[in-house]
Design goal:
alpha/beta; 11 helices
């Protein structure tokens, strides 16, 4: 079980959104590399980075901030937001990103995802963002009629290293993880699933310790870490202890 701290980038700053609304952004650090360094010092083992502007633009917008983070810390990084071509994927992997997250393109061009998995085994993650169980794309600006589980099943044999499942209705709202929907997805596929959206307190951390969650790869946390709502030292101790069992 891995606890992924989130660095969401908007206009070169580290922010958190409410319900994915770019107009409801709270700036937590105007120096993303400094924030990454702090996470490394706290003992996190991964970084989860999203280029929010890029998700809307369909191309890298906060690339300079990402590159500075890669040069600042030694943690593996998974990066998403506006990455929609094999050229972009390869470029980020060559720059030092460990895993690339594909969201909108997973719906628009599933064949590209399969080819990326073939070319870069173990380094492709699919991000499935859902509103009321339906897939949302283009930076969450468009909700489709496709069920999240149905999209995930399309990649059952593609070689995807993980699926990040985000409940948009909870993201940034500190309502708690949607464990039920996350586990429903995880049970429908054999690909490891990462829970995202709404992690609010140590109660969520303790819920992830229960046996039915042990086949999840981990969970992503943003606002709860920044606001001090979870005890990072204790959360990391619990997650690492679970891996040793």
């Amino acid at each position: 079980m891995i606890l992924f701290p989130a660095i969401d980038l908007k206009d070169g700053q580290c922010v958190r959104l409410k319900l994915g609304d770019m107009n409801q952004a709270t700036v937590f650090n105007d120096d993303p590399a400094d924030q990454a360094r702090r996470f490394e010092q706290q003992g996190f083992e991964w970084l989860h980075i999203v280029d929010l502007n890029g998700a809307f633009a369909g191309k890298s917008v906060n690339g300079n901030a990402v590159e500075t983070i890669l040069k600042t810390v030694h943690l593996p990084v998974q990066l998403g937001g506006g990455i929609r071509s094999l050229v972009q994927i390869e470029a980020w992997l060559l720059r030092g990103v460990s895993r690339v997250i594909l969201g909108t393109v997973a719906l628009r061009d599933p064949a590209l995802v399969r080819e990326a998995c073939r070319l870069f085994p173990g380094r492709i993650v699919v991000g499935i963002d859902a509103k009321s169980g339906r897939v949302a794309v283009e930076g969450w600006a468009e909700t489709t009629d496709l069920a999240a589980i149905d999209l995930a099943r399309q990649f059952a044999d593609a070689g995807v290293s993980a699926i990040i499942y985000t409940d948009i209705d909870r993201d940034g709202m500190l309502k708690g993880l949607n464990i039920e929907s996350t586990l429903d997805l995880a049970k429908a596929i054999k690909i490891p699933v990462i829970a995202s959206g709404g992690l609010a307190s140590m109660d969520d951390i303790r819920r992830l310790m229960l046996p039915d969650c042990q086949h999840l790869e981990g969970a992503i946390s943003g606002r709860a870490i920044y606001d001090g709502r979870i005890d990072v030292t204790e959360a990391l101790r619990l997650f690492k202890g679970l891996r040793k069992c």
